[in-house]
Amino acid sequence: MEPGPRIFSKFVHRLVGIFVAGIAVGIVMGLAVRPTSRSGYTAGAPSGFVTNPNSGSREPSSLEKASSKAKIVIGNIGTVPFQELYGLLSNRSPEEMTELARQLENLPASKETKTKIISFFKTWAHFDARAAMSAARSFKSPEASAAIAAVIDGADATTADFIARSIDDLPSEALSRAQKANFLGRVLSKWSELDPVAAAQFLDSSQLRGKGLTTTRITIAENWAMVDPQAALAWAQGQGGVHNARATMSGVIAGWWAKDPTSAEAYVASQINSLGPESAMTLVPRLFDEDPQHAKDWVNQLPNMEARRNANSFIAMQLASEDPKGATEWAASLPVEAREKALAVAVAAWTRQDPTATAQWLQGLNGTSRDEAISAYSSSVSTKDPVSALTWAWSISQDKIRDQSMQRVAAGWFQRSPNDARTWIQSSGLPEAEKTRLLALAAGK
Fold this sequence. Notes:
The chain has 445 residues and is mostly helical. It has helices spanning 3-32, 62-70, 82-89, 94-106, 111-137, 144-154, 160-168, 177-194, 196-205, 214-225, 229-237, 242-259, 261-275, 280-290, 292-299, 305-320, 324-332, 340-353, 355-362, 367-381, 386-394, 399-416, 418-427, 432-439. It has a domain at 382-445. It starts with a helix and ends in a 6-residue tail after the last helix.
């Protein structure tokens, strides 16, 4: 065959293939949403779809044609991929979208119906969130809350103000107070990504202000502080109640640190006594992820001792996940006033990984750090080896730490195996006074 005819033949085959593929795609898309008449199901139609009974020999009337044009069918909308469903629905007229919503209202309550409602309203919100929210507000279905939630998920920040006002204005019978707070919080968090000032003002004026919206306040404050730390700080300081103020402040600190780490760290360190020790924990995870040594240095210059203890405990836990021995040695080197919690965390982690190596390391300690480490070790091994745990605990030199450790191990043993605990204590070489004290714990098991 000559080159020309051969090329022409390939071209024809390609056209045929494209034509066939186009027919197949059209059939698939038509199964999700397609025009139909006013009637219901017919035998042989796919489940959930309507066929047109006027497709026989009789020509439908003009009234029937008008009705058919306005009506489309939901079908198995919940299983259609988002991009395909978006393409199908975004080309529909407002009247057709309203008709689809009406069909959803009339479906019987079920898991499948809920899935359809969520898919429909979430997709609708992507291209017309205002219309979708208006329809969801008036949705007459047991799954009305699912429709509203789907609109919130599908809408972008540019329509968050409209959606927030729509939710806030809903009558009390439409949603429970908890649902309303949850929905409003989600919308305001999204709104604050675009306009945190407006979101904050709306929250302050909302009927639900202060009602289960703590997380929302934190998110708004964080987004605001990434733009204007001082304004966000002033807003947080003006929040009523210590809990609200401190929670909101944690968002400010996080956002401020993202914008200007040095200034945020200096502010928290200088104001920690008024901010509260928990404010340090807003920064410590971030500092540790970026530079563990900087995190250690920053924590150990804090003037608030509780903040130092809590932060060092967190650092010890993070270090121990990679190197429990190194974490334990670091914790043991901390100043006595900031050491106990961190050392307990590190020793417990090392004991779980290698109790023999931990016990050998304990032998080289002395003083208060030894007592604190042994207390943590005895607690860690008490479940698997209570005899060893009590023996180690009894070797603690400080009376207070020793008594607490012995009591903790013995009490746990009495709960798990009272007869074994009683038998061992009675036959042990412990002083009689100590035996009596520990045996008395059995009464409170």
